[in-house]
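Side project, low priority. Logging it here so it doesn't get lost.
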Amino acid sequence: MSMEQPPLVKSAERTVRILETLAESHDHLTLSELQQRTGFPRSSLHALMRTLVELNWVETDSARSAFGIGPPTRC
């Protein structure tokens, strides 16, 4: 009898994929670039990015138009 793995939590999976995408880029990425690379819906991506910025996992430029991995030190 094979046991199936439970499905992944969609928002958690998307969050990890976003962080991986940002980590792979040498430059900050715009929301449009992130959408192209991840394929996530813009509304979901925008909400996740707002959360990641608020929690300091992701940083933005001064115009809040491009995103990159946040401060490297975490407590």
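Brief comment: The chain has three helices and three strands.
Revisit when time allows.
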